[in-house]
């Protein structure tokens, strides 16, 4: 296994866990088995991210568009989510990781909404790492919801319209209290971000892997970290300015 402890890791990693259904079809497995296998991959990824110093890991489990999938698949995904949460609670306590959820939860089953809320409360005080699971989430929903909250705060006199800018807006979107996303990993071979963290990915490095999520390994994760470490992040500056900043700091 490739070791990356000597590489400065991204502080915030986001993952689109794609390819579960294709994994099952490729192996003639029953429908839903790809999702079951994919659920098993997350644990070692979380542990490795914590080990190398990643401060926040955000994974795309269920998009707002996924509600349009066949009801049997939606029901299975909700059940798998419930099982994953129940399994993760003792792990979060062991590794001192805060577990959070983002997305529109209005369509979640009542018992699942309660479980989500209780889990966030039980792990909120941990600070070794934050694991965020996006459920019923869409980047456009996130931005629209944030705009609605800003508008309401302006109406209520909590903020002034003239003070609304990108910095203020960033405080309203999901994950606004976490470091900006440094690295987005998408598995499965597709080259798109699928309405995930549209605001938060503004300056993220993108890594597209052909590996299907149930086959995603720590070696492939380390490769993504290596590629990230080799990229020059300029944030609008020139390469010369970046080099000068490194010298001065």
UniProtKB/TrEMBL annotation:
Mg(2+) binds at residues 18, 205. It is an enzyme of class 2 (transferase). It catalyses: 8 isopentenyl diphosphate + (2E,6E)-farnesyl diphosphate = di-trans,octa-cis-undecaprenyl diphosphate + 8 diphosphate. Substrate binds at residues 19-23, 31, 35, 63-65, 67, 69, 186, 192-194. GO terms for biological process: cell wall organization; peptidoglycan biosynthetic process; polyprenol biosynthetic process; regulation of cell shape. NCBIfam families: uppS. Catalyzes the sequential condensation of isopentenyl diphosphate (IPP) with (2E,6E)-farnesyl diphosphate (E,E-FPP) to yield (2Z,6Z,10Z,14Z,18Z,22Z,26Z,30Z,34E,38E)-undecaprenyl diphosphate (di-trans,octa-cis-UPP). UPP is the precursor of glycosyl carrier lipid in the biosynthesis of bacterial cell wall polysaccharide components such as peptidoglycan and lipopolysaccharide. HAMAP family: ISPT. Homodimer. This is Ditrans,polycis-undecaprenyl-diphosphate synthase ((2E,6E)-farnesyl-diphosphate specific). It comes from Acinetobacter boissieri. The gene is uppS.
